[in-house]
């Protein structure tokens, strides 16, 4: 009985794929898989270098400042949207 169930399930799945293929065929959708060229990745890795301590600290400070500003902006918007309606 399990073989029959598996066969029925396979037929159902293939039937759904056929319907989808027919619909996509009607829409003339052309989907191409992205191409991966490993030479580009190797070239980038060869050009990459470890940042100096000064560069790392500068990037860290800027990132922390950006996160803090976005957090404060979100908090201000939150306060306006929750506390301001209560005042009226």
UniProtKB/TrEMBL annotation:
<dbReference type="InterPro" id="IPR023391">
    <property type="entry name" value="Prot_translocase_SecE_dom_sf"/>
</dbReference>
<dbReference type="GO" id="GO:0006605">
    <property type="term" value="P:protein targeting"/>
</dbReference>
<protein>
    <recommendedName>
        <fullName>Protein translocase subunit SecE</fullName>
    </recommendedName>
</protein>
<comment type="function">
    <text>Essential subunit of the Sec protein translocation channel SecYEG. Clamps together the 2 halves of SecY. May contact the channel plug during translocation.</text>
</comment>
<keyword id="KW-0813">Transport</keyword>
<dbReference type="GO" id="GO:0005886">
    <property type="term" value="C:plasma membrane"/>
</dbReference>
<feature type="transmembrane region" description="Helical">
    <location>
        <begin position="56"/>
        <end position="81"/>
    </location>
</feature>
<dbReference type="InterPro" id="IPR001901">
    <property type="entry name" value="Translocase_SecE/Sec61-g"/>
</dbReference>
<keyword id="KW-1003">Cell membrane</keyword>
<dbReference type="GO" id="GO:0009306">
    <property type="term" value="P:protein secretion"/>
</dbReference>
<keyword id="KW-0472">Membrane</keyword>
<dbReference type="GO" id="GO:0065002">
    <property type="term" value="P:intracellular protein transmembrane transport"/>
</dbReference>
<dbReference type="InterPro" id="IPR008158">
    <property type="entry name" value="Translocase_Sec61-g"/>
</dbReference>
<dbReference type="GO" id="GO:0008320">
    <property type="term" value="F:protein transmembrane transporter activity"/>
</dbReference>
<comment type="subunit">
    <text>Component of the Sec protein translocase complex. Heterotrimer consisting of SecY (alpha), SecG (beta) and SecE (gamma) subunits. The heterotrimers can form oligomers, although 1 heterotrimer is thought to be able to translocate proteins. Interacts with the ribosome. May interact with SecDF, and other proteins may be involved.</text>
</comment>
<keyword id="KW-0653">Protein transport</keyword>
<keyword id="KW-0811">Translocation</keyword>
<dbReference type="Pfam" id="PF00584">
    <property type="entry name" value="SecE"/>
</dbReference>
<keyword id="KW-1133">Transmembrane helix</keyword>
<dbReference type="GO" id="GO:0012505">
    <property type="term" value="C:endomembrane system"/>
</dbReference>
<keyword id="KW-0812">Transmembrane</keyword>
<comment type="similarity">
    <text>Belongs to the SecE/SEC61-gamma family.</text>
</comment>
């Amino acid at each position: 009985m399990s073989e029959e169930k598996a066969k029925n399930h396979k037929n159902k799945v293939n039937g759904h794929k056929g319907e989808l293929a027919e619909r996509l065929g009607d829409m003339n959708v052309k989907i191409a898989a992205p191409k991966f060229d490993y030479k580009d990745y190797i070239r980038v890795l060869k050009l990459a270098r470890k940042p100096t301590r000064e560069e790392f600290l500068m990037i860290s400070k800027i990132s922390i400042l950006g996160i803090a500003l976005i957090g404060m902006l979100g908090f201000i918007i939150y306060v306006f949207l929750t506390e301001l309606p209560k005042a009226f």
